[in-house]
């Protein structure tokens, strides 16, 4: 695993991040509804940058597999401690490494791609 810029920050703030309410709940609910409308029960979904797992926990029960990844071990620790549908799996992985365990029918990356050091290489790796 390479050194992700900002990883120390995310590890340090993970507990505070998890305790914070969603800043714009209406927008978040709209996003969830939009994503859910594009998912099929048979889909294998990869989420890159899952943070503390909120989206995976909300949508993961409606698909065959939801593999939620984050580079931060602290974020994954928090996500993994929450009750989850049987189809949800949390794993520590950087964006470019998250595709392990594929292929996937759907890839989600919410509020993340601007943080990836080499976006072009990451997108090429994801689009296998």
TrEMBL record:
Signal in keyword set: no
Keyword ATP-binding applies: no
User: InterPro entries under this entry?
Assistant: SAM-dependent_MTases_sf
Q: From its record, what is one biological process in GO terms?
A: methylation
- Output the Pfam families linked to this UniProt entry: Methyltransf_23
Give TM regions: none
Q: Which UniProt keywords apply?
A: Methyltransferase, Transferase
Q: Which CDD domains match?
A: AdoMet_MTases
Molecular functions per Gene Ontology:
methyltransferase activity
- The superkingdom listed in its UniProt entry is Bacteria
The protein depicted here goes by the name: Methyltransferase family protein
Question: Which species does the entry assign this protein to?
Answer: Cereibacter azotoformans
Give the lineage: Bacteria, Pseudomonadati, Pseudomonadota, Alphaproteobacteria, Rhodobacterales
